[in-house]
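Hi team,

As requested, here is the filled-out complex form for the nicotinamide-adenine-dinucleotide run. I kept the field names the same as last time so the parser does not choke. Let me know if anything looks off before we queue the next batch.

— J.
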Amino acid sequence: MANSLVAGKIILVTGAARSLGAQIAATCRDEGATAIATDITEVSEKRVVPHDVTSPADWSRVVADVLAAHGRIDGLVNNAAIMYSARPFLEETPEEFARLVQVNLMGVWLGMQEVGRAMSQSGGGSIVNIASTAGMVAHPGLASYGTSKWAVRGLSKYGASELGPSGIRVNSVHPGGMMGTTMFPGTDNQAVYETVREGLPLRRVTDAADAANAVVWLLSDLSRQVTGRELVIDAGATLGA
Ligand SMILES: NC(=O)c1ccc[n+]([C@@H]2O[C@H](COP(=O)([O-])OP(=O)(O)OC[C@H]3O[C@@H](n4cnc5c(N)ncnc54)[C@H](O)[C@@H]3O)[C@@H](O)[C@H]2O)c1
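And here is what came back:
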């Protein structure tokens, strides 16, 4: 895309040091926005701001810094998340479950509050929460991760309902396995890639740019009447579920 879809907007993207988050930040910039990329992982690239999404103090600092520099925040993409390797539910541990909930759900909740307060002061904005097809159906071996994504889906609807009167839209994006990302094994395993591809109605594996394009549309004013909805980007993978 290169259409100035989000020209002039100030957009914060979490977990943006690599993979989907980096793609979203790059697409926002391509479309005319100022994108502030944050991540817990230290990277030499100067444009990534240190930010642990589980830390309320980090959220306060990051949002205050963006407001000081730009005066407002028009868009927030809660992309940061973790995932453990697939395993049977009975083998999952309480520690893993707690950490998944802390990063994947609490991190989103904190961002919606902190940025929601700023957006409500400046007349509104668009929040996009990155969920997963694991938050639309039950994927084998992903009970805790999937549960955190179902919760993000629910939180997005509550956010849309609560924040709508302040002009803030909240939607969730649900990608299937995406080429070019760390979490998708098909990125560097040709056999997995082919198995996934053959199972898709469109016979084309999703890539990070497909999901990023959908996110940018939700950040743009083209989607101004859309809130509290799920946008599934999976080449039809979950149609039959
Ligand atoms: N990759 C896929 O195929 C796929 C499919 C469906 C949904 N998703 C979702 O898309 C998003 C991005 O996935 P990805 O594959 O690019 O993941 P990734 O692991 O490559 O990137 C996630 C980023 O989040 C950061 N992060 C982790 N914990 C953090 C914390 N506490 N605070 C701030 N940053 C933190 C990591 O450092 C990393 O840079 C996630 O929400 C994921 O659940 C991914």
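Two things worth flagging: The beta strands are 10-13, 34-39, 48-50, 75-78, 125-130, 168-175, 230-233. The mean pLDDT is 96.

Thanks,
J.
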